[in-house]
Amino acid sequence: MSSSGAEPSLTSAEQYLQSLTYGLIISTGILSIIVCSLRLYTRAFIVKVFGSDDIAVCVALVITQVFNGLGVAVVYYGEGQHFENVSPANRAIWLQLYYGAMCVYLYASLSVKISLLLFLRRIFVKAWMNWLTTGLMIFQVLFSISGSLVLAFQCNPARGAFDLSITDAKCYSQFKLYQITLYQAVLIFVADVVILIAPMVILCGLNMPTRKIIALMAIFGTGIIACIAPIVRFSTLDYLRYGTTDLTYDSASSLYWMAIEFNLGLVAGSLSSLRPLPFFRRFGSTTNSRYKVSTGDTPHELQNAKNSNARGSRKKNSFGMGTTILQDTLNESQERIVHVPKGERLPPHHRDI
């Protein structure tokens, strides 16, 4: 730093890393805002049914954007620069913001997971899916609260994690933080994989045109993009594993990969809800599909019968092996899928179809 007190100019590597971090956080954040806004508009004004998963998306979008805002502020105050090039005043602010992002990121992950799990519960009416999603939601809540507390109290006193004036604080070593964050990243990844695979199991067993199955799998399979982010983030934690004295520079990649994970998770969970929009309506739909409007959040379903004349007709309460019920509805804004094995009867609220 020069004697005049002016900060040194950034190197090309620092400029590139800051631009990359800004670009990825802002672009994925804007994408999630656009897609989620379209989803909420579709549900509220076209479908005119607003379910619990839509409310969860609103909450997740707010929390994710808070994390994005923290990320942008972290970059503004020094993330992507070498620590020695960050002014003492900016270091103090950066440490506070970085600490805040560490405490918030698990709640951002939690909010996205809850919105996805509630979405799956509404679309796939299966007993095992209800048990799976309920179990995952309980686990995610407990995991996120406990994990955030561990990070919030990584120092004794807790303020020592971001207040440089406290010189006698006892804190976790960087390797200990590496173990904690890696453990959390692995559990987040496992939950992502389960959420991705669960609907595929049902989709693979559907008795419906292959073209439509492929289209549905493509829609739900977009979640694989969000699953890739935590895998990549594993390698970005090496700065904690081996220790670093250049935290502002070495932690940048971990920050933007978290933003990618959360924002694309919201995008993936909202894409199928855009089908009632004119631009998306024909994607994955058969020529005989039509939208029916009802007043409840749990609409009646139409059987996907080979005979097109059977559309709208009433069916018996029990179905043969491999029978699938599929509905393209405006009030659901995506296919609601039920696989009914032989001898199994529909739940009471699905029998009048």
Automatic annotation (TrEMBL):
Its localization reads: Membrane
Map out region (Disordered) in residue numbers: 292-318
Q: Name one GO cellular component term.
A: membrane
Under InterPro entries, the record lists: Rhodopsin_dom_fungi, SAT4-like
Membrane topology reported for the UniProt record: Multi-pass membrane protein
- Domain Rhodopsin stretches: 38-277
TM segment ranges: 20-42, 54-77, 97-119, 131-153, 182-206, 213-235, 255-274
Enumerate the UniProt keywords alphabetically: Membrane, Transmembrane, Transmembrane helix
Principal localisation:
membrane
Q: Family membership, please give it.
A: Belongs to the SAT4 family.
Under which name does UniProt file this protein? Rhodopsin domain-containing protein
